[in-house]
Amino acid sequence: MSATRTRVCATAVVFVFRGFMGFVRVISVISVIVADLIGIVVDRVHRVMRLLGMLLGLAVALGALAPDFFDERAPALGTGTSVGTVIRGLLQHHTYHQGQIALLKRATMSGPQRRKA
Fold first, then answer.
1. Helix (H, G, I), strand (E, B) or coil at 93
2. Which of 46, 69, 108, 114 suits a disulfide with 65, CB 3.0-4.6 Å?
3. 117 pLDDT higher than 60
4. For the segment 32-65, what is each residue's pLDDT rounded down to a tens digit?
5. How far is CA 6 from CA 9, 12, 77, in A?
């Protein structure tokens, strides 16, 4: 075998090896990304399930009350507002502030963290 042919074969082997190693690195990066995405999805599903559990608990508690209870006036407020209106207002108020907190958290995060939130 000539020296030139040996160099060409050696170069081809090195090229193939580098290509293979590059492929391995790409697969490694893809597997890390997929694992992160799965973690994010599982976290989101867990949060949604927790929220649904709390909402179900609230629905059960409110369902146990007599229907006319929601039409009664809340005397502690002194405004003549019904209990049902107060409960709806508290839920809306709480939801609004949860949204504000989420926006503030997201605004204080840097690039990669922001995408996970």
1. helix
2. 69
3. no
4. 788 888 888 888 888 888 988 888 888 888 888 8
5. 5, 10, 93
